[in-house]
Hints:
Helix content is 46%, strand content 15%. The chain contains 8 helices and 7 strands, in the order βαβαβαβαβααβααβ. The chain has a 7-stranded parallel sheet, sandwiched between helices. Helix 2 (41-52) links the parallel strand 2 and strand 3 (58-62). The N and C termini lie far apart (35 Å). The mean pLDDT is 95.
Amino acid sequence: MKLLEGKTALITGGSRGIGRGICQVFAAQGANIAFTYLSSAQKADELSSELAKFGIQAKGYQSNAANHSAAEQLVNDVIADFGKIDVLINNAGITRDNLLMRMTEEQWDEVINTNLKSVFNLSKHIARPMMKQKGGSIVNISSVVGVNGNAGQANYSASKAGVFGFTKSMAKELGSRNIRVNAIAPGFIETEMTHGLDEKVLEQWKNLIPLKRGGTSQDVANACLFLASDLSAYITGQTLLVDGGMVM
């Protein structure tokens, strides 16, 4: 039997990069997939068609996870279309890198809202339906940058570190209702965002990693699958680093 057979997963930022990889792995394991995207309806339609080949229901929703009311509407729409939500993957995220002395208030607010407030928005609105069905799994995508920090990424580091504390607090609040809340902190993952980097920069990164390679979206997706499925039924409030040993 497939690990997510008959379950419905909502994945924010699902149309590209790590989010797309999560959608693909979850669909292959039997989950019905609801995912969000910001702009490209064409990419969303292509992904929905690709996922449907696994014999599951898939639908993309244009929604901004950083918007509180939009997140509420999203949860209501997904439940109306799919009947329930068993798994939430809070994956929406952006970078607006700059040194502190040059960072604008807008750059700070945009990253905090997209990366951290979005986790609050979706978790808050999905908590009540999960309580009614007496179970669920929430997985928040953070980053090793939230552990170690990084020059030029004070906004990103702060947002991702905030996810750790939020995850632990929600695990304590929701555990008695059989809702598990965990986080994943990816390291250097090769996606569309990294393809434009200079080869020398890529090699410098890889030399810092004990496994001597960048991760893939599937590496992160497989970790999400573990935390979303019953394989991790007794795990909550934890952060799993998927970083090839970069942070020890």
